Amino acid sequence: MNRAGMFLLLLVVNAISAATAAEKIEPDQFEVPDGFEVTVWATTPQLYNPTNFDVDAAGRVWVTEAVNYRNFRNEALGLANAEGDRVVVLEDTDGDGTADSSHTFVRDADLVAPLGIGVIGNQIVVSCAPNIIIYTDVDGDRKFDPNVDTKEIFLTGFRGLDHDHSLHSVKVGPDGFWYFNVGNGGPHTVTDKAGWTLRAGSSYAGGSPHLKENFPGRKSDDGRVWVGGVGLRIRPDGTGLTPIAHNFRNAYEESVTSFGDVFHADNDDPPACRTTWVMEYGNAGFSSADGVRSWRVDQRPGQPIRVAEWRQEDPGTMPAGDVYGNGAPTGIVYGENGSFDEQYPQGLLLSCESARGEVLGYVPRPQGAGFTLERFPFMKVKSTSAQHGWFRPSDVAIGADGAIYVSDWYDAGVGGHRMTDAGGNGTIYRITPPGLKPQNPEFDLSTTAGQIAALKSPAVNVRALGLTALRDNAEKPNEAILELTKDDNAFLAARAVWLLPYAGQTGMQRLHELLEEGNADQQITAFRALRRAIQFAGDQPEWTKAFAAAQRKLAGSESSAVRREVAISLRDVPVSECSEMLQRLAAGFDGWDRWYLEALGTACDGDEAEAYELLVDSAGVDPLDWDRRLAGIAWRLHPPAAVEAFKTRALSEDVPAEQRKQMINALAFIPTREAAEAMLEIATAGPDDMRGLAAWWGHNRHGNDWKEFALKELFPEPPTVVASKGAVRRDLDFQPVGEPDFFASGGEAQADINVRGAKRLYLLADTISAEFTEAEWRNPTLIGPSGKVSLTELEWTSAVSGAVPVNIPKKQQNLLRRAMKAGPPTVLAEDGAAPKLQVRARSVIAWDLSAGEYERFTVTAEAVGDNPRTNNRVYFQIFVDRSPAGEELPALADLLDHSASASLGRALFFSKRLTCSNCHMAEGFGGEIGPNLTQIARKHAKPILFEGIMNPSAAIATGFETISVLTVEGKVINGLLISAGDPVVVKDANGKIHTIPEEDVEEMFNGKTSIMPELKKLLTADEIASLVAYLQEIGQD
Question: According to the UniProt entry, where is the signal peptide (predicted)?
Fold first, then answer.
């Protein structure tokens, strides 16, 4: 870092320290649902920078810290510890609801910002790329002693050292497998203890000196290509590593319910974070199926980001769930039983949102073959709090006492691998009904009663102790297991169902009862328990026979969710061996349920051509007569044999437009010349409303699946798509900063003012009336050494008005296209010998005068409406800003309290002078080169927003790092990497896409500077403060 950058960082740190001396957010500053209270359970210096935590059977909290967080970017904070990060143990020894004991379990040089911890008995499982490490506390003193205790590298080969997109926590599922995930900061090459190897990669790289390259498209030992971030499970002995879903961006954790459902939240890419029920083997869709292309490359014309980012119109991707926009999700837990039972008897899914500064709540409800997720705020800082913008929840868990615990990273911002809290502060909060004191149940794992008590624990990894003990000797306590399967609490009953295969003949008999007569949840759990027992403990004849019978029976279930499970279980069964079941499952598709359709596609994985012949062709229906069911199945399978049928439907105007579009999209995923030629026919001779999409696909596929056919030049140019600007909102509160140089009321004015040294000039016409009225600025003239210049001859740089624009001159139209929805621009007009500006009060027009030398400004202003009463209520103001852009700015601590106008900030953001909106979107307007800034103020507190404007290279948003490509001809192309395959695709600062064949690339290297200019060179203190005020205003709830 250069001296200027270091100085700026120190200014930021000092400003943050000055802004708030608090080391934690007090409980009364939080909002939680009625019936809950927040208390501080532990805080610095008991712990620092908590990234993740787990709760043991005694209620102790084990925390991974990240004091060594991104030292390559945060060295100025001076927090680094050369001995490594640590795991700290916190305990409430007197039962008063607050921790009073804190000590280090281990500090290890192998721990560099670890992101996950699971406490499973005396095994402390820490996730820190490249390793999953098991520390075994042999003597149980909760202090790691290398002479007594053991350290094992359980798995290794995960990329993402000191990077957020890496390895996350281990949770024990109800089936006994260990569940975890890894982000898309690959490539990951991980071999389990039985020799099975996962190879996962994508085009994502950057953000860290440890992640300079990635390798997509590699096959794992199962012959499949797993892309990007991957969810995984493994046996506790280190064998049986299995991907359960993939193509995430950066899901922080997996939460597994007692029914075996998996939920997670994914993505700190600003536009489209999501919370999702994860269907087994599902493809989340962040990258292309081979991992080579980002979603931006494949975003179709007019396709919304929330659809494009998760490829929701592509066959083979699972539904995205709740896509809620900007954010950075972290820890997640599905609370099943605990102190919240009364308010949430169906369970409570809690997801930490560090960027938005809140814990999101959901009560997932089954719908069709999937779940609905209705979001609500569970915990957040009050908007009136001085510490609003500092709450950065990193993890959430249910304690052994049933309380909800939330850890706070505590910082002014998240993202870009930066932290600004020089104290490394952190807090753990406890959320319970008012006054609830902790009661951690004691149990003896040597007894059946103790094992059942542990299985009932609200804490995920504590219940694993009971599960393991009961499973290892299940025939002995089988009566207790059978009794628990009948518990009124469905979650507790489900935990026992997983033990039934191990509980001898009586256990299998009870399992059969549930498969035959149980409700949908019970049938799903029993089916999963039998299937997973085979996977966990190995094939046994009785299990295999029972499972095959269950598949056949449940394939005809009335519940689409039950049939979904059967479909998923057929993934590795050849179509020829399960054709009857597939036909029954296909008959159950209603034509609408996307979850069900994806499960059906999973059942046919690798055998799509044979499945298409069985499920579609054999129906003998003319493609023009396909219903939604047949069309949907054909789209999902899209084998080469379907090309002619897809083309026929796409060309027929008798087929609804939505379904023709579906057929065109299906053709695009068939990598054959016949498919490309069919697309060409649609693009040149198809219905008018489909030609553009077909042309776009022809150009898109030239860079990948259809490149070898060289048909691009035959395709028409895709149409240019202009983003919709939405409805106009009148802006009635624009106010330039400072006092006016001229003021006159009464509906008329004569002004002659000094403008020497003026950099900007603002004309404001306003009214104290509730009604708008017409007004004019007549003969506005600038006078200088070179003579007179009419202000009407200069283009204004920004304008807002309370009126709808009319008669817009051509030279203003370009600016108007970039104008914000907050208000249409004031209209410029000329009237022969008397130039004038026609406006309606209220309006403000701004000019940049920095290019000229002017001494005086004269103008006549008058209200000219039809009503004399309202005319008299119009007043005129003229503001002159003489502070030069690029002046030496005040210290950041002073800027935080600087006077500012959000409306001026809005005008500047969309102005021709700054062109912020060329790259960034705000309030639904602008470009998509950089991050969407509509909710950026929820991700970053005020000091970080200032830093982002003044020094954008200090913390480049993850996913927006720059890259430089040197071609063999010596040309250098700088910009954002869109695709790392062949060809390499780069988007430059002007939004231009550069497609570079791999053979023409001499070298690629990551840049260290943002493509955003340092605006401190262009703006005054008033303007920078106003830009920040605007971002804060639009980021409010």
Answer: 1-21
